[in-house]
Specification:
Layout: E1 14-19, E2 25-30, E3 40-43, H1 44-50, H2 59-70, H3 76-88, H4 95-110, E4 113-115, H5 123-135, E5 147-150, H6 155-171, E6 177-183, E7 193-194, E8 198-201, E9 204-206, H7 210-220, H8 238-248, E10 254-260, H9 279-292, E11 297-302, E12 304-308, H10 320-338, H11 342-351, H12 361-370, E13 376-386, E14 391-400
Parallel strand pairs: 4-8, 5-11, 6-10, 6-11
Antiparallel strand pairs: 1-2, 2-3, 5-14, 7-10, 8-9, 12-14, 13-14
Length: about 400
């Protein structure tokens, strides 16, 4: 390795600080795509080097930056050792990682169904947990539910809102299909991305309504499944499917799974690459195809709200006053949903640069645009707080009838 050699770039990864038992601060490098499931932990010194792995800095640049920040020299051998560890973990943007990603995508497309059973190895325990949550819920007297907002938090933290949302949906009667709009946390698409795969869960196989999906694509003149491997790791849809299986109690139903993009970025509801569909166009098509299709269709948004705390890069520890401020901000947004002023909902998020990191504005907006003019009722608001972990996530339950 020569001083003027450019060092490879890191892939798009998450870097999370943690404290070891000896008190030292380390950083966990997690790959959202999970080309390798095991995260890699690095020291604070190595973290400083990572900041310069952008494909443009040379070995000499990295050594000079380390010298400026620490007044110490970093041997070439240590940099080589770090690069080897990153390469072994498939965290570098190189041919080895690209081949692993291509193999992963090919395996998904060849699989007979999207299978999430390994995440929930005990079906009996999963069913029992969901039944306990449902039993704690209060079903609102809403007839003919057409749309539902439920969390995509894990069941333990999101339970209060899952309970009321799905108790209300169950009381409103069964549907023939559920269009489930999730949040694309881990994928590469910046447009709506659907999948034609059936969902295989610990509770059984749920078929996808491919005719409904084809109708959407025909109306939009665009394939929604070009990046369907974005669904491989995304949890916000499968968490809804489990509840639907429990409340269906053996009655057949189909799903239409689609992930929605973040709309708080520089291009708003348009895909950043220009290759895709505008989110409102998708939502309008969704509403039209739902109205034309036989049987009852319910649209579900698997949506969380704010994410605050040092786990999400807030600089200071979270105080009760801060959580109260977040609650007021969330409630203002939810009031706009009840008023059916989704334009103001989006405008408020953009005007504040989405200060509390509302993660699911895209799927909430798509649900409301697909069901214009129908009343939206907020059933519950909940803050799931973990003070020791500095992780605070909020959510709501809502119905559109």
């Amino acid at each position: 390795m020569h001083a003027d050699d450019k060092l490879p770039a890191l892939r798009n990864i998450e870097i999370l600080p943690f404290r070891r038992p000896d008190g030292e601060i380390y950083f966990a490098l997690q790959d959202p795509a999970e080309l390798k499931a095991q995260p890699l932990a690095v020291s604070a010194a190595a973290y400083l080097l990572l900041a310069h792995l952008d494909g443009e800095h040379t070995l000499a640049d990295v050594q000079a930056a380390f010298r400026r920040h620490t007044n110490m020299e970093v041997p070439v051998e240590e940099i080589q050792k770090l690069l080897a560890a990153l390469d072994d973990a498939l965290l570098l943007a190189n041919e080895r990682a690209a081949q692993a990603d291509a193999a992963r995508q090919a395996a998904y497309r060849a699989a007979p169904a999207r299978d999430n059973r390994e995440r929930y190895p005990d079906a009996a325990n999963l069913r029992a947990e969901l039944e306990r949550i449902l039993a704690s819920g209060a079903a609102a007297p809403v007839a003919g539910v057409r749309g539902l907002i439920a969390p995509h938090l894990d069941y333990a933290r999101g339970g209060p809102c899952y309970a009321d949302a799905y108790a209300t949906l169950a009381a409103s009667g069964s549907a023939d299909r559920y269009v489930i709009l999730g949040t694309n946390y881990f994928g590469r698409a910046t447009s709506v991305v659907a999948t034609g795969k059936d969902f295989l869960t610990p509770l059984g196989l749920v078929p996808t309504d491919r005719n409904f999906l084809a109708g959407l694509e025909s109306r939009l003149n665009h394939s929604l499944a070009n990046e369907e491997t974005d669904h491989l790791r995304e949890h916000s849809i499968e968490l809804q499917v489990h509840f639907l299986q429990v409340i269906a109690d053996g009655r057949p139903f189909e799903i239409v799974p689609a992930l929605c993009p973040d709309i708080c970025g520089p291009t708003g509801t348009r895909p950043q690459s220009g290759n895709g569909v505008e989110l409102r166009d998708f939502a309008a098509a969704l509403g039209a195809v739902s109205a034309e299709s036989e049987g009852r269709t319910v649209i579900i948004a698997g949506a969380d709200l704010s994410h605050v705390g040092q786990r999400f890069q807030d600089p200071d520890p979270t105080t009760p006053q801060r959580l109260a401020e977040v609650a007021r901000s969330d409630q203002r947004l939810l009031k706009l949903l009840e008023e059916r002023n989704e334009d103001a909902f989006v405008s408020r998020l953009i005007a504040t640069s989405n200060a509390t990191r509302v993660c699911s504005a895209g799927c909430i907006l798509a649900l409301l645009v697909a069901l214009p003019g129908r009343p939206c009722r907020i059933l519950k608001y909940h803050q799931a707080s973990n003070a020791p972990a500095e992780t605070h996530v909020t959510c709501a339950a809502a119905v559109v009838a």
